[in-house]
Design a protein that fits this description.
With about 850 residues, this protein is an alpha+beta fold. The protein contains 27 helices and 25 strands. The strands form seven sheets. Strands 6, 7, 8, 9, 10 and 11 form a six-stranded antiparallel sheet that branches. Strands 2-1-5-18-19 form a five-stranded mixed sheet, covered by helices on one side. The chain is elongated. The chain starts with a helix and ends in a 22-residue tail after the last helix. The C terminus is likely disordered.
């Protein structure tokens, strides 16, 4: 204990003596002359600065330099370029990858773009060696004078930071930037450095590099940018997320004007160019993240295929896929599906608002509440979501997410008139706070609409090569990614009948074969699994003996069933496989004739292609070729063409006869609306409506284009007792074909060898004088008196119909399907039509 006390006293004594010495030295120094004091202070400062610099150099070379990252990522630059999907006419329809980047070589970048970057980021770029010392001094002085810090990073330093370092602001990272900048300058040319910068930098809206920014903000390649547009893009790197021209156009414009001024001061542009650029009105694409052509379902099909082949490499390696789609066809198909679905939805009434919120009284709180609810109800293309702010009997006011205030009146209210009534049930009533859908008409007037619940699909295929020209898998990919073209297995209804008829031609039938259109019970009750099955026509009207051509044209159920019974279901199913249908998805019984199996719209399109091209089975395909980032072809389609006998599916005579019969369907049968509206004689096809109108179809072709339209609910239910294939799918088909066939001449098929005309219709030569089927279920052996007193159902003669027959025929033509409603009069439970998957 005494030792500790002694030690403590000794320490105190030393401290006191040291303090006394320092105090005395300071007093003595302060008493010296001023000039001596200044010289001594300067010497101390120099020594201190030298020591600090020495320490900094030591720290840099001992700790920073050894830990610098390699610049291999720069000398062997491999930018992350997404998978891109294009139409056959080179229109971008899909992009898959985290970074949207269009690599552009320095030689392809216009001088105006390079000068704009240099003017704002590093005007001494081509003079300094990586670090602009004058810029560092200037920035340091500015930081002392101003409260805001000013950077002194050159383009080379920014390249080092972007590629190799973090954005965390520390002195250590700044030292690394400086050292890396010198190293980069030693290994790369100035143009190589600038090329790296201009392709790697982030520019907002998921755009990386100025090539992609030009496309996303202005919808054009970088080489086509004006000086004003180049200056706008050059201003984005400072604040890409918050000050790009989409998010903050005012701030972006202010920076653009400053850059133009700098370009003028540096003599990069003339006075006249400056004045023109400063006054130019720019058209920035507000929806730059969207593609000009809607082909999301097709693009996703491509992505899935590419992933199965190359896995995650597809998202960064810059591969490009060229599809068989044609932009004009795809646009027409998309618009046709949207229009057809919305028209159907309008026919079935307004279901009420999508949601409701309580609108706060405070303006800011109200705006926030509106934004929050509308984010949960995103727009569907031109079908906008809006929140109602005021309602009266003659007007509805609402606001959209874009903060557009709209007013709906007059015709725009008609669709939802019942929801505006004071007597409307609460869940359907439109009131302040209701979330509704609005749509502008051709006159730019707003009207109330709604998001449809029904689904639809459309696909068009070139009959000569199988290439898919248009593909729409649903109303809106963002709302429902299920692709109804390739994934929806649905009952085909009467669209399957032509394939049964085609099978019958190979069994000695001809279009002139007479078949009895009468209930099966009138001859022999149909037997299905030992149980009586008595299908009927929808209105219980029967025409007696009719030709096979008339049976198809008017979609007669009993005619199709009797044909199938004659040739047998197993034979028909085997024949269907020649067209690409799956045998295991078709019923092995007489209900096959009514379309109770399962098919996809794409399968149906491929099947009708066989009729359209003279009998060749060409599997529909979407991908034409795949190329890597350097343009090397990795995959290329090599499919058979029409005329390649190795792809023959049916006899050319069969295809010719079926083509004539399907043309009759459009000319004067259930599909007559197509011929009437398009005014062409080379159209062929077939309507289809399943039991209880759960599915509506039209499959057909014109010239060399095959197209299939379908509509139905994902969870099958009736589309309505007044809906048929002709009202649901045919209008979509017609709208598309109007564009696809515009300006194209009609074509007529040549008669193949081996056909003979018998009684005014075609027949295979071998059956003309041989074992043909002249009639089915018509008793031609009855005695004279039996025929006289029991002649059976009389076949109506054209021009001699009674008024009831005429009215019924007109109704059938309008609806397009005689088989659509109450198709099966009575059927045992084992033959109830199964729901399609």
């Amino acid at each position: 204990m005494p030792d500790k006390v002694a030690t403590h006293k000794t320490s105190q004594g030393i401290a006191l003596r040291l303090f006394s010495f320092i105090s005395k030295s300071i007093v003595d120094w302060s008493e010296r002359p001023t000039d001596i004091k200044l010289r001594q202070a300067a010497i101390v400062a120099v020594i201190a600065s030298f020591c600090a610099a020495l320490l900094l150099v030591a720290y840099t070379f001992l700790f920073v330099a050894p830990n610098l990252p390699s610049i291999d990522a720069l000398t062997d630059y491999r930018p992350k370029i997404p998978l891109r999907v294009y139409t056959a006419d080179n229109v971008l329809i899909g992009e898959f990858g985290e970074e949207r980047r269009d690599f552009v070589s320095i030689g392809e970048i216009p001088s105006s773009m390079k000068n704009a970057i240099i003017a704002i980021e590093d005007n001494n770029f081509y003079e300094h060696g990586g670090v602009d010392l004058l810029g560092v001094v200037r920035a340091g002085l500015a930081n002392i004078v101003r409260s805001r810090s000013q950077g002194a990073s050159t383009i080379t330093m920014q390249v080092a930071r972007t590629f190799l370092l973090t954005r965390k602001k520390t002195y250590s990272r700044k030292l690394q930037e400086v050292l890396l900048a010198y190293r980069i300058e030693q290994n790369l040319t100035k143009d190589q450095i600038l090329e790296l910068y201009m392709n790697q930098i982030y520019l907002g809206q998921r755009a990386y590099g100025f090539g992609s920014a030009a496309r996303i903000y202005f919808g054009k390649p970088i080489k086509d940018l004006s000086i004003a547009e180049a200056a706008m893009l050059a201003g984005i790197p400072k604040a890409p997320a918050s000050a790009n021209p989409v998010v903050n156009p005012k701030r972006a414009t202010e920076r653009q004007q400053y850059i133009l001024k700098r370009m003028h001061e540096l003599n990069f542009i003339t006075q006249a160019q400056y004045e023109k650029a400063a006054a130019e009105q720019l058209h920035v694409l507000a929806d730059g993240n969207r593609f000009r052509t809607h082909a999301e379902y097709a693009a996703e099909q491509v992505r899935q295929f590419m992933y199965s082949q190359y896995k995650d490499d597809i998202y960064t390696s810059g591969m490009s896929v060229y599809t068989t789609l044609i932009k004009a066809d795809q646009d027409a198909a998309y618009e046709a599906v949207r229009r057809g679905v919305l028209d159907y939805d309008k026919r079935h009434g307004y279901r009420g608002p999508e949601a409701w919120i309580d609108l706060p009284k405070d303006e800011e709180d109200r705006q926030q509440a509106i934004e929050e609810i509308l984010v949960k109800h995103p727009d569907s293309d031109d079908l906008k979501a809006a929140v109602v702010t005021a309602v009266s009997a003659k007007s509805v006011k609402a606001v959209t997410l874009a903060d557009d205030e709209i007013e709906i009146s007059g015709e725009g209210l008609r669709f939802a008139a019942a929801a505006l009534s004071a007597k409307a049930v609460e869940e359907k009533k439109i009131k302040p706070g209701s979330v509704i859908r609005v749509l502008q008409d051709s006159k730019k007037k707003w009207g109330i609409a709604q998001l449809p619940e029904v689904a639809a699909a459309f696909v068009a295929v070139n009959a000569q090569d199988g290439g898919i020209r248009a593909m729409v898998g649903g109303f809106d990919f963002a709302l429902n990614q299920f692709d109804h073209v390739t994934q929806a297995w649905r009952q085909p209804g009467s669209t399957i009948k032509p394939f049964v008829y085609s099978a019958a031609l190979e069994k000695g039938f001809s279009p002139g074969t007479l078949i009895n259109d009468a209930p099966l019970a009138e001859d022999n009750p149909g037997e299905q699994g030992g149980k009586a099955w008595n299908p009927g026509n929808d209105n219980s009207q029967y025409d007696g003996p009719v030709t096979m051509r008339t049976g198809l044209k008017r979609s007669k159920n009993l005619v199709s069933i009797r044909i199938l019974r004659k040739i047998t279901p197993p034979y028909a199913i085997e024949h269907l496989t020649h067209f690409g249908f799956d045998a295991d998805k078709q019923p092995d019984n007489l209900t096959l004739a009514l379309g109770t199996g399962s098919v996809t719209p794409l399968q149906m399109a491929g099947a009708y292609t066989v009729f359209a091209n003279g009998g060749f089975k060409l599997a529909p395909y979407l991908i034409q070729k795949v190329v890597d980032v350097r343009g090397k072809v990795l995959l290329e389609a090599n499919h058979p063409q029409a005329g390649d006998e190795t792809a023959r599916a049916i006899d050319p005579r069969n295809a010719f006869i079926m083509n004539t019969m399907l043309r009759d369907v459009v000319r004067s049968g259930t599909g007559y609306m197509a011929g009437q509206r398009l005014g062409r004689s080379d159209l062929a096809g077939k309507t289809g409506t399943t039991n209880d109108a759960m599915d509506g179809w039209f499959a057909g072709y014109g010239r060399d284009m095959v197209a299939v339209a379908w509509m139905g609910y994902d969870k099958p239910r009736s589309l309505g007792n007044r809906e048929f294939g002709s009202t649901l799918a045919l209008p979509i088909w017609v709208d598309y074909m109007r564009t696809a066939l515009r300006g194209k001449a009609e074509i007529q098929s040549a008669v193949p060898a081996g056909l003979t005309q018998v009684d005014g219709d075609w027949m295979y030569d071998e059956y003309a004088h041989g074992d043909s089927v002249r009639s089915v279920d018509i008793d031609e052996q009855k005695g004279f008196w039996e025929k006289l007193f029991n002649p059976g159902p009389e076949q109506p003669v054209p021009g001699n119909l009674n008024q009831d027959d005429k009215d019924r025929q007109r109704e059938e033509m309008y609806r397009g399907e005689v088989e659509s409603d109450k198709r099966i009069a009575s059927a045992p439970p084992t033959f109830v039509r199964p729901e399609a998957p």
